[in-house]
Design brief:
By secondary structure, the protein is mainly α. It is built from two helices and no strands.
Length: 49
């Protein structure tokens, strides 16, 4: 997401849903998508063998 617009090709490529991004934006107490300049998602999964 950049400047309030979703990058559909990036969402499809990574398997991230728009709803996931919107949930994180709500958690940040932002009220308008136009207030979002850019979203950077980071994988924080821990893999153990």
């Amino acid at each position: 997401m950049e400047n309030g617009e979703f990058w559909e090709n990036a969402l499809e490529r990574t398997g991230v849903a728009c709803e996931d991004i919107l949930a994180k934006i709500r958690e940040s107490n932002l009220r308008r998508l136009s207030a979002v300049r850019i979203v950077v998602m980071k994988n924080t999964a821990i893999f153990r063998s």
